C-alpha cells in the first residue's frame, strides 16, 4: 500500500474563553489518500476547525494538539514556520467557508490570484495574468475580464466563492481542503465546479477534503465520508452508503431534508441525545 | 404586500458596467412566501438589497403595503422589513457580541423585555445561552448565520427578506429554521422573499417563485410545478435536473 497523503491522529483544538473552555475538536483521526473525502456533521461540530488545524491556521488563542499530523511524510507539528508557509497556498490549499471574508478586501480579485500564483511559481506578470483569467473562466465566471477587476465586495456570494476556488487551485495543490465550497452556488454552476475538482483528483491525484452539509451532494460526489458530532468523528462510511448509516445522528440527518418529491411539514428534526456528545 | 415594478439596478461604469437587475417585476401577497432562484450572479441578492435601499435603483418602483418606499428608508421601513444577508460575516459587527447584536434593534425601536427576548431569539435558532457573549469570529459558519436570522426575527417584522438563510446550516438545523419560518408565517402572517439555490427548500417554504438569469426574470412558476418537474423554461428544467445530485456520467462523453 502506498503511504497516505495526509495522516491525522488524535487531533484536538481547544479555545479558552473568559466564559469557559470550548473543545472544538476532540480527538479526530483519519487518513487521506488521493481521493475525495467528505466531512459532514452538525453546525459547530468542528469541521472547519479541523481543516484549519491541518493548515496551521487555528485562530489565536486556540491550542492544537495531535499525536500525528503529517502531510506527504512532512511532520506538520514540528515543521518550521517557513516550511509551513511554503506548503500553505502551494501544495496544500484551503477554500474557506466565508470566502468573501477570507479574500483581501482592498485588492481586486485578479490581483489576488496573480499574487497567489507568483508566490509559488516563477512566472512573468503577463503569464500570471493569463493564468488568472483562465482560472476565472474555468470556474464559469460569466465575464472573467470584469470579475478580474472587481473588489470582493463587488461580486455576488457565489462569485466570491468561485474566486476563492480559482485562487486556491492556481498553484495545483496536492491537497485541497474545501470548506463548503459550493454552498452559495446554484446547482448547475455547482456541478461544473465539482467537475473541476473531480478531474483534479482523478487525473492529477490530488487529495480532496470536502466539507459540506449537503448530504445528497456528498453521497454522490465523494468516495468516503466522515460524520462529525460535537468535535468527534462518530461514523466513517463509504459515501454511496450514506443512506445506510448506523449512527442515529447520521440517520436522523437524512430524514430532516426537505425534498421535491414529498411535502412533509413540519420537517422532522433531531432529538439530540446527550450521549452522542460523550 | 410587496410590489416590485420594472426594477433596474446598474453597477459600475465603462468596461465594468453591469446591469445587475434589468426590468424585474413581481408581487408578493400578504402572508405569502415568494422564492427567487437562478444562476450565481444573476441579481437575486441585488433585488433584495434594492428593496432595502442598499443598491442603487436606476429604474422602476418598490411598493410596500401599497405605498412607494422612501429613499433613504426610514425607521418605519426597518420596523416592517428586515433582511438576512447572504454573508453573515459581513453583516455582523465584528466587535459586537451576540448579546449586543441582538439588543441593538430592540433598543433602537424602544422595545421592552430585552433580556427575555434575546434568550428567546437564541432558543428559536437552536443556540444556548452560552453563545450570548461570543464575538462573530468565535462562532462556526452556521452559528453566525443563525445569529443573523435571530437578529432579523427579534423585532417580529411583517416582511422578511431571506438571502440563502439556510445554506450554511446542516440538515437538522435547517429543518428547525424552516419549521420556525413556516410557523411564524402561519401564526403571524409574515411575508417572505426567499433566495435559495436549493429548490427543495424553496418548494418547501414558497408558493410561487421567479427564476432569474442575467439580471432578468426568465420564468415565474409555482412550487407545485417544481415538485412535478413541469417547467416551461429550459434553464429551469436544467436546475431541476441538476438538483438530483452529482453525476460523473456527464463528464464521460467529453473525455471519450
Ligand atoms: N475562535 C473561536 N473561539 C471560541 N470558539 C470557537 C472559535 N472558533 C470556533 N469555535 C467553536 O468551535 C466549535 C467548532 O467550530 P467549527 O467552525 O469547526 O464548526 P463547523 O463544524 O465548521 O460548523 P459549521 O457547519 O456551522 O460551519 C463551534 O462550537 C464554535 O463555536
Ligand atoms: N457593489 C457592486 N459593485 C459592482 N458590481 C456589483 C456590486 N454588487 C453586485 N454587483 C454585480 O451585480 C451582479 C449580480 O450580483 P448579485 O449579488 O445580485 O447576484 P446573485 O444572484 O445574488 O448571485 P449569487 O447566487 O452568486 O449570490 C454581479 O455581476 C455582481 O458582480
Ligand atoms: Mg464550518
Ligand atoms: Mg447572492
UniProtKB/TrEMBL annotation, chain A:
| Location(s) in or outside the cell | Cell inner membrane
| Swiss-Prot/TrEMBL keywords | ATP-binding, Cell membrane, Membrane, Nucleotide-binding, Transport
- In terms of one coarse class, where is the protein primarily found? membrane
Q: Which SUPFAM superfamilies match?
A: P-loop containing nucleoside triphosphate hydrolases
Q: Name one Pfam family in it.
A: ABC_tran
Write down the membrane topology.
Peripheral membrane protein
On the tree of life, the source organism's domain of life is Bacteria
Q: Which family does it belong to?
A: Belongs to the ABC transporter superfamily.
Could you tell me what this protein is called?
ABC transporter ATP-binding protein
Species whose genome carries this gene: Microvirga terricola
UniProtKB/TrEMBL annotation, chain B:
Question: What PROSITE patterns does the database record attribute to this sequence?
Answer: ABC_TRANSPORTER_1, ABC_TRANSPORTER_2
Does the keyword S-adenosyl-L-methionine feature in the UniProt annotation? no
Q: How is this protein positioned relative to the membrane?
A: Peripheral membrane protein
Q: Where in the cell is it found?
A: Cell inner membrane; Membrane
Q: What EC identifiers does the entry list?
A: 7.4.2.10
Q: Which residues form the ABC transporter domain?
A: 2-239
> Sorted alphabetically, which InterPro entries does this protein's record hold?
AAA+_ATPase, ABC_transp_ATP-bind, ABC_transporter-like_ATP-bd, ABC_transporter-like_CS, P-loop_NTPase
Q: Which GO terms describe its molecular function?
A: ATP binding
Q: Which residues form a coiled coil?
A: none
- Record's keyword terms, sorted: ATP-binding, Cell inner membrane, Cell membrane, Membrane, Nucleotide-binding, Translocase, Transport
Q: At the top level of its lineage, which domain of life is listed?
A: Bacteria
Mostly located where?
membrane
The UniProt entry, under SUPFAM superfamilies, shows: P-loop containing nucleoside triphosphate hydrolases
Query: Which reactions appear under catalytic activity for this entry?
Result: glutathione(out) + ATP + H2O = glutathione(in) + ADP + phosphate + H(+)
Q: How does it assemble?
A: The complex is composed of two ATP-binding proteins (GsiA), two transmembrane proteins (GsiC and GsiD) and a solute-binding protein (GsiB).
Which PANTHER family would you find in this protein's record?
A: GLUTATHIONE IMPORT ATP-BINDING PROTEIN GSIA, TRANSPORT ATP-BINDING PROTEIN
Job description of the protein: Part of the ABC transporter complex GsiABCD involved in glutathione import. Responsible for energy coupling to the transport system.
Family under the similarity heading: Belongs to the ABC transporter superfamily. Glutathione importer (TC 3.A.1.5.11) family.
Put simply, this protein is called Glutathione import ATP-binding protein GsiA
Source organism (scientific name): Microvirga terricola
Amino acid at each position: 500500500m502506498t503511504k497516505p497523503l495526509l495522516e491525522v491522529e488524535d487531533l484536538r483544538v481547544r479555545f479558552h474563553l473568559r466564559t469557559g473552555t470550548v473543545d472544538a475538536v476532540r480527538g479526530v483521526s483519519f487518513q487521506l489518500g488521493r481521493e475525495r473525502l467528505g466531512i459532514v456533521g452538525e453546525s459547530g461540530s468542528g469541521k472547519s476547525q479541523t481543516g484549519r488545524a491541518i493548515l496551521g491556521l487555528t485562530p489565536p488563542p486556540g491550542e492544537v494538539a495531535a499525536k500525528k499530523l503529517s502531510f506527504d511524510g512532512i511532520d506538520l507539528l514540528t515543521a518550521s514556520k517557513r516550511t509551513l508557509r511554503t506548503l500553505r497556498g502551494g501544495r496544500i490549499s484551503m477554500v474557506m467557508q466565508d470566502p468573501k471574508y477570507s479574500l483581501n478586501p482592498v485588492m481586486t480579485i485578479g490581483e489576488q490570484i496573480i499574487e497567489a500564483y507568483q508566490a509559488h511559481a516563477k512566472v512573468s506578470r503577463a503569464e500570471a495574468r493569463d493564468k488568472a483569467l483562465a482560472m476565472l473562466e474555468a470556474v464559469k465566471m460569466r465575464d472573467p475580464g470584469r470579475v478580474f477587476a472587481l473588489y470582493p465586495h463587488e461580486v455576488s456570494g457565489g462569485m466570491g466563492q468561485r474566486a476563492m476556488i480559482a485562487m486556491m487551485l492556481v498553484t495545483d495543490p496536492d491537497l485541497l481542503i474545501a470548506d463548503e465550497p459550493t454552498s452559495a452556488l446554484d446547482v448547475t454552476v455547482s456541478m461544473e465546479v465539482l467537475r473541476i475538482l473531480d478531474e483534479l483528483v482523478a487525473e492529477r491525484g490530488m487529495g480532496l477534503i470536502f466539507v459540506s452539509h449537503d448530504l445528497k451532494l456528498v453521497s454522490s460526489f465523494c468516495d468516503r465520508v466522515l460524520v462529525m458530532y460535537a468535535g468527534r468523528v462518530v461514523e466513517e462510511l463509504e459515501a454511496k452508503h450514506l443512506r445506510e448509516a448506523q449512527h442515529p445522528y447520521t440517520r436522523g440527518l437524512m430524514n430532516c431534508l426537505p425534498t421535491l418529491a414529498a411535502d412533509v411539514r413540519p420537517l422532522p428534526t433531531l432529538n439530540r441525545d446527550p450521549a452522542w456528545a460523550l | 404586500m410587496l410590489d416590485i415594478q420594472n426594477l433596474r439596478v446598474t453597477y459600475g461604469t465603462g468596461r465594468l458596467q453591469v446591469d445587475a437587475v434589468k426590468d424585474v417585476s413581481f408581487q408578493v401577497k400578504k402572508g405569502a412566501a415568494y422564492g427567487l432562484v437562478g444562476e450565481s450572479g444573476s441579481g437575486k441578492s441585488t433585488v433584495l438589497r434594492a428593496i432595502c435601499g442598499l443598491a442603487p435603483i436606476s429604474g422602476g418602483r418598490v411598493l410596500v403595503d401599497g405605498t412607494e418606499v422612501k429613499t433613504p428608508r426610514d425607521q418605519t421601513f426597518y420596523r416592517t422589513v428586515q433582511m438576512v444577508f447572504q454573508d453573515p460575516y459581513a453583516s455582523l459587527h465584528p466587535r459586537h457580541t451576540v448579546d449586543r447584536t441582538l439588543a441593538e434593534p430592540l433598543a433602537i425601536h424602544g422595545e421592552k423585555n430585552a433580556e427575555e427576548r434575546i434568550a428567546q431569539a437564541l432558543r428559536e435558532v437552536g443556540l444556548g445561552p452560552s453563545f450570548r457573549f461570543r464575538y462573530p469570529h468565535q462562532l462556526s459558519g452556521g452559528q453566525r448565520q443563525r445569529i443573523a436570522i435571530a437578529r432579523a426575527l427579534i423585532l417580529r417584522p411583517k416582511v422578511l427578506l431571506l438571502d440563502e438563510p439556510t445554506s450554511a446550516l446542516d440538515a437538522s438545523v435547517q429543518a428547525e429554521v424552516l419549521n420556525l419560518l413556516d410557523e411564524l408565517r402561519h401564526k403571524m402572517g409574515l411575508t417572505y422573499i426567499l433566495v435559495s439555490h436549493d429548490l427543495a427548500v424553496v418548494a418547501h417554504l414558497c408558493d410561487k417563485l421567479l427564476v432569474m438569469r442575467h439580471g432578468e426574470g426568465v420564468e415565474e412558476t409555482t412550487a407545485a410545478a417544481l415538485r412535478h418537474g413541469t417547467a416551461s423554461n429550459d434553464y429551469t428544467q436544467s436546475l431541476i435536473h441538476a438538483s438530483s445530485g452529482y453525476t460523473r456520467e456527464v463528464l464521460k462523453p467529453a473525455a471519450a
